[in-house]
């Protein structure tokens, strides 16, 4: 109350010791005896104010006014919005056992079942223990070749567009690139979506769009029993899911046969050279799991590893289109480290600036921009008590753009990360930066995704210059599970004038003759 404040000011001028004064006044402030229970700042909003634009933007403005934790209420619903690094750390890491995936699990159940992302409790623990070892170092290193091959296919496609003088929509091309990569990496399936469309590619997109629609829709119409059967959209979703599930069942059956015929000696870094996929690892490990659970896991990995990486590449190329000085440095690095070779593990260690560009792109455009949790018990968030059953959004967007933690927070500045410093992550940035989450639910594909996006970026900028296409609509954001553009990323692609590479006869790596022969203009 006001009188307590006035008394505090008055007494402090008279000089009683500070701690004594605080103790005395806090008892008065709470009417004596009881402990003071602080109220989380509360904001009432109409749902339209939140859903009419990318919802994390109004959450950012409210953060600047109300601080690192506030309660957002619309109608009977309320969410806690967390933008404070220490509270985020408490929820994700220090007291992670007291939080579940909440709404996220409910929304994603139709596609991921009890896969790793939505699962909680014992199922999550068992599946995490089975899946993490599959993404071992040797596997990720083997994937570098795959990243190079898939990026090369994209180079060839862009080469044609450059010759024809046709603009390209890069967001959908990145989505195809990462779909091709993840299909091969997870279950040894050739989507080949960069080269042609087919039913299964379309089915994956139908399911993805549905998951995104469900995560942003204000009313869950899909839960209404009759609606499910009559809505043409829902029928399409069911058919798509059926097709994907039966394809996955076939792949599981094929892989099982392969494993049975193999002279198997399973060990820690086990990998089948012909089929290094995660599915092969899981079956070879003798993982005792139902086919339904295995399918849920594969589907989860497919979705988790596909759109996120595609979104990172999209926003990286958008940021680069506005930063020619960064592009020049990237190109210098790609020229000197890679030349025209497919990247190797050793090259990746040297592509330091490219890695910093991806780190910085992930800061400005975190995928997903918010992490969702629900409290399973009463807890304290900072100085505030909260009850069991609270729905919580940790805004990674706010953490990554907080003026408190970043100099020129809005500026794309890869130089903010020292080239020879440690790779930035949630631990060394004390939860001000958490592109892959943190704690026990941290992304299992962080190294995979970093290598994948670094390889694609280096190979593309090595060969082409990218500009926003003249007359293209402004690049604006919209949210699903990741941040999309509203109308695509239309770009004009031109071949670079690349300094001639002196061929190194020692090297046994593949070269890019097909692309290069037409791309050298001097
Ligand atoms: C979880 C980001 C790529 C598999 C997460 C989380 C984040 C994230 C922030 C934590 C979610 C939470 O705490 O609620 C990203 C980004 C990627 C990427 C930005 C690309 C740049 C991948 C890839 C894979 C993958 C390539 C698989 C190969 C997973 C899985 C989880 C997860 C399975 C759930 C882990 C668990 O709950 O135990 N990812 N991810 N991610 N990610 Fe990724």
UniProtKB/TrEMBL annotation:
<protein>
    <recommendedName>
        <fullName>Protein LUTEIN DEFICIENT 5, chloroplastic</fullName>
    </recommendedName>
</protein>
<keyword id="KW-0408">Iron</keyword>
<keyword id="KW-0479">Metal-binding</keyword>
<dbReference type="GO" id="GO:0016123">
    <property type="term" value="P:xanthophyll biosynthetic process"/>
</dbReference>
<dbReference type="GO" id="GO:0010291">
    <property type="term" value="F:beta-carotene 3-hydroxylase activity"/>
</dbReference>
<dbReference type="GO" id="GO:0016705">
    <property type="term" value="F:oxidoreductase activity, acting on paired donors, with incorporation or reduction of molecular oxygen"/>
</dbReference>
<dbReference type="GO" id="GO:0020037">
    <property type="term" value="F:heme binding"/>
</dbReference>
<dbReference type="GO" id="GO:0005506">
    <property type="term" value="F:iron ion binding"/>
</dbReference>
<dbReference type="GO" id="GO:0009507">
    <property type="term" value="C:chloroplast"/>
</dbReference>
<keyword id="KW-0349">Heme</keyword>
<comment type="similarity">
    <text>Belongs to the cytochrome P450 family.</text>
</comment>
<keyword id="KW-0503">Monooxygenase</keyword>
<keyword id="KW-0560">Oxidoreductase</keyword>
<feature type="binding site" description="axial binding residue">
    <location>
        <position position="443"/>
    </location>
    <ligand>
        <name>heme</name>
    </ligand>
</feature>
